[in-house]
């Protein structure tokens, strides 16, 4: 499967997906770690992640797919939410919890 089609399929098949450096248990950068902490605090226990350090094709092509240059990248219901800063802003405002609970409920 071509990498852009695979990215599209991953985004469509998982209500909440985080493309990150490392894993939720062992994040490999501070931004990925903060994003995971915010998502878990917002109730996203059913979180699907892809470690871009182990997926060089995804790491190289995801910024073109999403038009977002950095990692992590959070998608909810197929829509790019953003990176670490936006995820933290949404968490602090209480919006992330609402978005996550809606994504899990569907």
Automatic annotation (TrEMBL):
<protein>
    <recommendedName>
        <fullName>Glutaredoxin</fullName>
    </recommendedName>
</protein>
<feature type="binding site">
    <location>
        <position position="59"/>
    </location>
    <ligand>
        <name>glutathione</name>
    </ligand>
</feature>
<keyword id="KW-0411">Iron-sulfur</keyword>
<feature type="binding site">
    <location>
        <begin position="84"/>
        <end position="85"/>
    </location>
    <ligand>
        <name>glutathione</name>
    </ligand>
</feature>
<keyword id="KW-0408">Iron</keyword>
<dbReference type="InterPro" id="IPR033658">
    <property type="entry name" value="GRX_PICOT-like"/>
</dbReference>
<dbReference type="InterPro" id="IPR036249">
    <property type="entry name" value="Thioredoxin-like_sf"/>
</dbReference>
<dbReference type="Pfam" id="PF00462">
    <property type="entry name" value="Glutaredoxin"/>
</dbReference>
<dbReference type="InterPro" id="IPR002109">
    <property type="entry name" value="Glutaredoxin"/>
</dbReference>
<dbReference type="GO" id="GO:0015036">
    <property type="term" value="F:disulfide oxidoreductase activity"/>
</dbReference>
<dbReference type="GO" id="GO:0051537">
    <property type="term" value="F:2 iron, 2 sulfur cluster binding"/>
</dbReference>
<comment type="similarity">
    <text>Belongs to the glutaredoxin family. Monothiol subfamily.</text>
</comment>
<dbReference type="InterPro" id="IPR014434">
    <property type="entry name" value="Monothiol_GRX"/>
</dbReference>
<feature type="binding site">
    <location>
        <position position="21"/>
    </location>
    <ligand>
        <name>glutathione</name>
    </ligand>
</feature>
<feature type="binding site">
    <location>
        <position position="71"/>
    </location>
    <ligand>
        <name>glutathione</name>
    </ligand>
</feature>
<dbReference type="InterPro" id="IPR004480">
    <property type="entry name" value="Monothiol_GRX-rel"/>
</dbReference>
<keyword id="KW-0676">Redox-active center</keyword>
<dbReference type="GO" id="GO:0046872">
    <property type="term" value="F:metal ion binding"/>
</dbReference>
<feature type="domain" description="Glutaredoxin">
    <location>
        <begin position="16"/>
        <end position="81"/>
    </location>
</feature>
<keyword id="KW-0001">2Fe-2S</keyword>
<keyword id="KW-0479">Metal-binding</keyword>
<feature type="binding site">
    <location>
        <position position="29"/>
    </location>
    <ligand>
        <name>[2Fe-2S] cluster</name>
    </ligand>
</feature>
């Amino acid at each position: 499967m071509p990498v852009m089609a695979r990215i599209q399929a991953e985004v469509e098949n998982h209500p909440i997906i985080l493309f990150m450096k490392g894993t939720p248990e062992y994040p490999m950068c501070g931004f990925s770690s903060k994003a995971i902490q915010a998502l878990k605090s917002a109730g996203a226990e059913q979180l699907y992640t892809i470690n871009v350090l182990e997926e060089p094709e995804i790491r190289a092509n995801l910024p073109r797919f999403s038009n977002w240059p950095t990692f992590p990248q959070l998608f909810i219901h197929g829509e790019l939410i953003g990176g670490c800063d936006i995820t933290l802003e949404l968490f602090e405002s209480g919006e992330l919890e609402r978005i996550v609970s809606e994504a899990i409920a569907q």
